[in-house]
Amino acid sequence: MKEKRKHDRLKVTVKSEVVFEEGFTYSNTVDVSKGGLFISTPEPIGIGSPISLAIQIPGENPVELSGVVKWVRNEEKDGERAGMGIEFNDMGDERIDSLKKLIK
Asked: For residue 38, how far is the Cα from the chain centroid?
């Protein structure tokens, strides 16, 4: 299968708060790239759902981002966690700089 990602990703676990239309959840971000991230959660929300999230970068203020759910994995299998892939919306330079600190 051909890799669809535009950006390299980094395996890193940080706390995140995800806010969506029906509510919010606290989860772990498992991997991050400049274009998006994967959030581990046993109850992913629907594909196409807009979200706001705050990523807790150690030693920094939370980075607030927005995005859309691009794909979901409803069950854990083959060693991969249940969760959802988020694609970031356009971000300002300050948010990009904060995210770069995490993915360096």
From this structure: 4
CA angle, residues 11, 15, 20, in degrees to nearest 5: 110
Flag whether the pTM goes above 0.85. no
Q: Within 13 A of 81's CA, how many CA atoms are on the CB side?
A: 16
Question: Which residue's entry shows tokens 């046993």?
Answer: 42
Q: What is the pLDDT of residues 2-55, one digit of tens each?
A: 445 455 566 777 888 898 988 888 888 878 877 888 999 888 999 999 999 888
Burial of 46 (0-12, 13-18, 19+ CB in 10 A): exposed
Among 103, 85, 83, CA closest to 25 = 83
